[in-house]
Design brief:
Strand 14 and strand 15 form a beta hairpin. The radius of gyration is 17 Å and the shape is globular. The chain is α+β, with helices and mostly antiparallel strands. It has a single domain, classed as Creatine Amidinohydrolase. The strands form five sheets. Strands 1, 2, 4 and 5 form a four-stranded antiparallel sheet that branches. The protein is built from five helices and 15 strands. The two termini are 25 Å apart.
């Protein structure tokens, strides 16, 4: 969406704060032995306490309040009885609707002690997110964001998944425009003050090819290599991007 009234920005900020607070609560709860269903229940509690709703549920009838993906699973992992194990990576993707406004953010967290390679992958995803946010300013284009992300990812020896992108957000969970993680030639939309969208590098340590799991939701790396996902919802301001889902 594009903001054209102060009350819209405040509504988006409230939704963004809820998503950030929920992610922080979930990250603190990540530990070996905790199930993905238990993490999902914590998110549901946070939403209910705020009078909010799960974006994936109200938009797609998704079988969980949030998406929780492990190791080679990139996005849309379904919560369930799986217990986290020492050394895994877990991606927590939180999208909520509050007062008619949507916000969306994701982190990939370490379960206990993880390998240096896994740490480096997570760090690269966060650096790519920061690079994309830095490129999001008035007068730039979506192609500039994708270029900043891809340059950062490849500089660290990893790859983006061209089929997986960010998106517009606001009154609905998924809106136009598509926000590529690479400099797509078609991504010429100029960034104007008030435009709201997600920036979300999804990166892998191996092939950019994907596979869909039997649950019909989860998308994983085709070669079983590790992946990481970092995401924020931003709005273009006069001097650059305001991160609506920033964690304090």
């Amino acid at each position: 969406m594009s903001i054209d009234a102060p009350e819209q920005l405040e509504g988006l900020r409230r939704a963004g704060r809820l998503v950030a607070e929920t992610l922080a609560r979930l990250e603190r709860a990540v530990a070996p032995g905790v199930t993905t269903a238990q993490l999902d229940a914590l998110a549901a509690e946070s939403f209910a306490a705020a009078g909010a709703h799960s974006g994936p549920i109200i938009t797609y009838g998704y079988p969980g309040s949030i998406c929780i993906s492990l190791d080679d699973e990139i996005v849309h992992g379904v919560p369930g009885p799986r217990a986290l194990r020492e050394g895994q990576l877990v991606t927590l993707d939180v999208a909520a609707e509050l007062g008619g406004y949507h916000a969306d953010a994701a982190i990939t967290a370490a379960v206990g002690e993880v390998s240096p390679q896994a740490c480096n992958l997570v760090d690269a995803a966060e650096l790519a997110l920061a690079a994309g946010i830095g490129a999001a300013r008035p007068g730039a284009t979506l192609r500039d964001i994708g270029g900043a992300i891809e340059r950062t990812v490849t500089a660290h020896g990893y790859t983006v998944f061209p089929a997986l992108t960010g998106h517009g957000i606001g009154r609905a969970m998924h809106e136009e425009p598509t926000v590529y993680n690479w400099p797509a030639r078609s991504a010429t939309l100029p960034l104007e003050v008030g435009l709201v969208f997600t920036i979300e590098p999804m990166i892998g340590a191996g092939s950019p090819a994907l596979r869909e799991l039997d649950d019909g939701w989860t998308i994983a790396t085709a070669d079983g290599s590790l992946s990481a996902h970092a995401e924020h919802t931003v709005v273009i301001g006069p001097r650059g991007a305001e991160v609506l889902t920033a964690r304090s």
